Amino acid sequence: MDPTALKAWRKAERERLIAARVAVEPTMLDSWRRRMDITLERSFPGLARCRLAFCWPIKGEYDARHLARTLRSRGALTALPVVVKPKSPLIFREWHPGVEMVAGVLDIPYPVASAEVVPQAVLLPMNGWDRQGYRLGYGGGFFDRTLASLAKRPLTIGVTYEFAKLDTIHPQSWDIPMDYVVTERGVYRRDADRLEFLGEPDMAGGTLASPVCYADEHYFGGKS
User: Fold this and answer.
1) Which residues of 204-219 are buried (b: 16+ CB within 10 A; e: fewer)?
2) For position 208, what pLDDT does the model report?
3) What is the pLDDT of residue 58?
């Protein structure tokens, strides 16, 4: 697909998927969010002791603020992305309730004066996602530039919904795949250039049928 056709295709798919997400009943979105909170909490215990970046939710995206509150109570430091200027990497600033915020790009609030943070893990919303773990974002390329610019790449967990899965987003050389994808169904891990479904966690308190086995050790310096 040539660059012009690809740009048009991604724009159309982005608009289609956002419209489908916005049309989901709020009660269903909240049910999916609760499942994903439990999945993330139990499958990635290292998140509770790390510097975690997430995105303020818009247009029916997974709302990570609930999980962030839980993780902060266990020792995590949470941060939000800040756009410095167009076509440049993002920075991250610490956020918790009470931090001064202003509206930024797409009217998304961001912290204005809190400490800058280098995240160890990122929960990254995806408008669409494919079987290789690539993300269809909003078209600005901010997160790809940011991940490529960091001296040590953080653990990247795409957070999205099952209906947004595509065969491919036609990834380009600058597109960076996720390490993991979490949906209301469960956890996918990227292995050998494609996503492998690890299974559904037991909502009663169990673990995945095929557990996340190395994320803690690799990114957070040891297993929980």
Assistant:
1) eeeebeeebeebbeeb
2) 54
3) 96
| Number of neighbours of residue 151 by Cβ within 10 angstroms | 5
Domains and CATH numbers, the chain: 3-220 (3.40.50.10420)
User: What is the pLDDT confidence band of residue 165, given thresholds at 50, 70 and 90?
Assistant: very high
Where do we find the tokens 């012009």?
4
Distance in angstroms (rounded) separating the CA atoms of residues 91 and 80:
8
DSSP structural state of residue 218: H
Integer Cα distance of 103 and 112 in angstroms:
10
- Using CA atoms, how far residue 166 sits from 74, 127, 134, 158, in Å, is 36, 10, 10, 14
What is the sign of the dihedral through the CA atoms of 51, 53, 56 and 58? negative
- Parallel, antiparallel or unpaired: strands 128-130 and 109-111: unpaired
Residues 6+ apart with CB under 8 A from 13: 127, 128, 136, 166, 169
